[in-house]
Amino acid sequence: MGRSSFADQLELALPAGSRSRRFAQAGVVVWAAIGVALLIGVLFILLVRLSGLLPYLVVAGVVLLILSPLVRGLERLHVPRQIGATATFAAAAVAAPALVPILVRAFVDQLTTLLKNSPQALRGHGLVRILIDSHNSLLHSIGISVRSWVEQHQSKAPEYLGNLAVGLTRASVVILLGGVLGYLLLLSRPQFGRFTLLLVPPQRRQSVQDVLDEMGRIVGGYVRARFIVSAVVGVIATVGLVVVGMPAPLVLGFWVGLANLIPTFGAYIGAAPVVVVSLLTKPPQYVLLALLVVTLSHVVDGFFLSPLVMKETTNLHPVVVLLVVIVGAEIAGLYGVIAAIPVAGISAFLVRRWVKPRLYGPDPMAPVPIAPAPLPDDPVGEVAAESGPPDDPDSA
């Protein structure tokens, strides 16, 4: 009698459907949950320790994901990868210094004007002026407090502009070094893929390749789509704010587009400064126009852009999105927010692909692949015998 397998021994020790089997399965789930929690804790500590590197890695990843489709397109035209990657990165590196200084100069000029002219704007027909002129003591005190707060911060305008200059300098360094790192990854991406597969046993390489392709689809599709959608939303908001005559339209439109990178809650975060500036500098009814512009930009996003561009989805619950965005913001600020959703999407995919089937078995609703069966020796005769007319009972 041959030696029984481990599965047979397990079936004898823990029969299916028995209480001991259910208890053992519950124990496996509990220990797996503890292991996952410990792994998440270790990764969180590691990310906190390495949070200084995260901005460079995020910029490098964005460069890699945005330029990869262009490089693959050139490869399909029989252009060598080194030449295609170098030409694509060089074009982006030449275009950025030509456009970015113009936008930054206009951004800083509008922000400076907004900070310096805030006290004069409060003396116009805005909500604060109405509150100050109110005969109600409570409303009058609120108006006086808001005006004092604005004048106090207006006196710190040089400090704020200096902090902005320092932030722009740091961002320039991060973008420069991260962009070079992204270019190097773009050049050596196929070698990295082949090296990774060499570390995997041959019989599992196809499965690992499928997982890597799916991870690339999730991250690349989400990041590219999110940046495209946010850029279009920012442009629409900027143009609309210029049309309705809002002060500092480039600053506010940039903020609307930047906040749109945050899923679910970005629309509200982007609209808040627009509403505040409108209430402080314009008549109260003017806020309706400002809200109409912001709402229109997000309607275009929700009904036209996202269904068209956001085909690659991470399938994350809104609660999970909120939690990972908060964690990413705590670890690395804006860069953590950008990286949080793709990392969570990859983690969810790996759990669905490897962890869940081992804990609960295969999904009963998943399609079952059917292997092609060998054809019979005489299919015509068998089909003819099965599909012939029925025997006549009276012809015997």
Which residues form runs of ≥5 with pLDDT under 50?
A: 378-387
The percentage helix is: over 70%
Give the quaternary arrangement of the chains.
Answer: single chain
Using the alpha-carbon principal axes, give the shape: globular
- Please, what is the average pLDDT? 76
Rounded to the nearest angstrom, the distance between the terminal CA atoms is 55 Å
The Rg value, from CA coordinates, equals 30 Å
Structure characterization notes:
The chain is mostly helical. It has 13 helices and no strands. The chain is globular, with a radius of gyration of 30 Å. The model is unreliable at 378-387 (pLDDT under 50).
Short note summarizing the structure:
The protein has about 400 residues and is an all-alpha fold.
Features:
mainly alpha; 396 residues
Topology:
Blueprint: H1 6-13, H2 19-49, H3 54-76, H4 81-122, H5 127-132, H6 137-154, H7 157-198, H8 205-244, H9 249-259, H10 266-281, H11 286-309, H12 318-360, H13 379-387
Helix pairs in contact: 3-4, 3-7, 3-12, 4-6, 4-7, 8-9, 8-11, 8-12, 9-10, 10-11
